[in-house]
Here is the input.
Amino acid sequence: MIPLKVNKKRLSTEAWSDTPLLWVLRDELGLTGTKFGCGMGLCGACTVHLNGLPIRSCVLPIGNVDKQSVTTIEGLEGPVAEAVQAAWIKLDVAQCGYCQSGQIMSAVALLSQRRAPSESDIESAMSGNICRCASYVRIKAAIHLAAASLKQSPKA
Here is the structure.
């Protein structure tokens, strides 16, 4: 039995310790917002937060998680998440939408660490997230919009 903390809930799994976190999230816990893309940690579709930092869940063995805090797109909350989600909607970022949960998770992690990111900060933080629809211009614009709204928000 491997203890987990996912989206603030204490859980456990009987999965083998080398099972990727992604499969436990999707297949056991039914949290299908996190997507399978490449299976090698290269595309970013499987991005979740581990203790607030973005990680690729397709290559992280569940045995390495051991009670650490995992947040998926379904559990994302707070002022930064709200600002990012609002910007994504306002700028109609998603096309097919497949990569968007990973994109949003990476953007929230960036803005949680840097409230006024530069272009190079954004490019660096988002570089591991691939969008087959090539909505990169709108993704960057949404991150800038979210940062601007956080600057104006008293609760952020």
